[in-house]
Amino acid sequence: METTKQYDVVIIGGGAAGLSAGLVLGRARRRVMVIDAGSPRNAPAAHMQGFLSRDGMPPSELLAVGRQEIATYGVELVTDTVTGLELAAGGDFCSPVDVSYRVHLSEGADVDARRLLVTTGVSDDIPDLPGVRERWGRDLLHCPYCHGWEVRDEPLGVLGTIPGSVQHALLIRQWSADVTFFAHTYGLSDTERRQLDARDITVVTGEVTRLVVEDDRLTGVELSDGRFVARAAVFVRPGIHPHPDGLLASLGCSYDESGFVITDRTGLTSRPGVWAAGNVADPRAQVITAAGAGSAAAIAINNDLVQADVDWAVRTDHGLGRLHERVLETG
Q: Vertex 241, ends 292 and 276: CA angle to 5°?
């Protein structure tokens, strides 16, 4: 009978948070596996911004460097998809010999882990309009902190879709004096209209039918009545949800009213031995924030494992024998 491979920590998700955690845990001499499906949220973006010392680096390059670094410390990286998580039969998360969780993979064999860190990020719900998906991350944008500088002082648009769209337009006004809010399917309140007017943001009513693209660049927005409004870039506030849905819920982790897992400041969920970091727990986290959260979670996980190792050593005959020897030696 084939024995299931066992790890101190299995990290699900190989983005900035997961790789940062893998780096810390690898350097702590833990046996670690990082499982990544190979579909990062920021893949369409040519560059990432706001990451000190890495500002402007392509996201793919950051991941490539991170993978090389964790391999230096013996961390295993597997390209696969996790299909399920469960408490391993007979698992005792306090024991360094037994395991606590079993990880089911789509293609590979199951693996067991004493601790889990989930860093799978989020999925974006963006409008289903012609040109939207093709321009996503290029000149159809969502985060002004990530992309605002690159389109500063250009004629910008904001597409109204979900609650918070007006606040998004008011934020983007920081980067350009020429901002148009396309109400589209969003119902503006009187207060929101006054706010937009006060900030000299033009409001265009009517549904948007498509983004107009010429020579591989966005040139404007077309409305259902045929109007065309020239814009150099359009921002949209997407609906977001943890990816994949239900992975942490299957373990009984608690969620908030927005559908995101509840964690403490180290990333520990309500389930013992299970951490979450990055966008899967904090939808506002940028790349640098996610990397920091992964590092913090890794330190907490290693400290938890150290305490588990101590508890096991004290409980066992072997551990008690060593403890008694120390007591005798010190008088």
A: 35
Question: What's the rounded mean pLDDT across residues 40-46?
Answer: 72
Name the nearest CA neighbour of 24 among 302, 289, 327. 302
Q: How far apart are CA 200 and CA 218, in angstroms?
A: 23
What region does 306 belong to: left with phi over 0, alpha with psi -120 to 50, or beta? alpha
Sign of CA dihedral 111, 112, 114, 117: positive
Q: Are 157 and 235 in contact (CB under 8 A)?
A: yes
Parallel, antiparallel, or unpaired: how do β-strands 217-223 and 228-230 relate? antiparallel
Average pLDDT over residues 75-83: 96
Size of the chain in residues: 331
How much is the pTM? Answer: 0.87
The pLDDT tens digits of the residues spanning 208-238 come to 999 999 999 999 999 999 999 999 999 999 8
- Of the candidates 87, 119, 120, the one whose C-alpha atom is nearest the C-alpha of residue 103 is 87
DSSP state at residue 247: T
Beta-bridge mates of residue 240? 124
Q: Are 258 and 301 in contact (CB under 8 A)?
A: no
Model pLDDT, residue 132: 86
Closest of 241, 260, 277, 307 to residue 11, by C-alpha: 277
Task: Please state the rounded mean pLDDT for residues 312-328.
Answer: 58
Farthest-apart Cα atoms in the chain, separation: 91
Q: Hunting for tokens 């359009």 — which residue is that?
A: 234
CA dist 301 and 119 (Å) reads: 14
Taking the alpha carbons at both ends of the chain, their separation in whole angstroms is 49
Contact (Cβ atoms closer than 8 angstroms) between residue 275 and residue 303 = no
With CA atoms as reference, report the closest residue to 201 among 169, 231, 237: 169
Question: Are the C-beta atoms of 11 and 302 separated by less than 8 Å?
Answer: no
The residues facing 84 across adjacent strands are 104
Residue 134 has pLDDT above 90, yes or no: no
Amino acid 122: pLDDT: 87
Alpha-carbon distances of 127 from 164, 188, 200, 280, rounded to whole Å: 15, 18, 25, 21
Whether omega before 244 lies within 30 degrees of 0, making that bond cis, reads yes
